[in-house]
């Protein structure tokens, strides 16, 4: 399962989360500030999509970027 690392009040995080929904990506939303190790690793980089410990995407991305990163063709 993917983990979507966000921050409370992050408008970009909220906008891009819609792409996860649109592509039916199974994920868990995680607040970067709730876990010190995540804050240290990703605090300045949110939003970040992780698969295990691997960064799939971070910062600003489009639905098409997400689809490509996940091996899906084109997005919706």
Automatic annotation (TrEMBL):
InterPro entries: Glutaredoxin-like, Thioredoxin-like_sf. It comes from the Bacteria. This is Glutaredoxin 2. It comes from Marinithermus hydrothermalis (strain DSM 14884 / JCM 11576 / T1).
């Amino acid at each position: 399962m993917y983990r979507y690392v966000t921050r409370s009040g992050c408008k970009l995080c909220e906008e891009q989360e819609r792409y996860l929904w649109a592509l039916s990506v199974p994920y868990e939303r995680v607040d970067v500030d709730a876990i010190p190790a995540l804050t240290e690793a990703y605090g300045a980089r949110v939003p970040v999509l992780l698969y295990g410990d691997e960064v799939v995407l971070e910062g600003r991305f489009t639905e098409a970027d997400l689809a490509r990163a996940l091996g899906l063709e084109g997005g919706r």
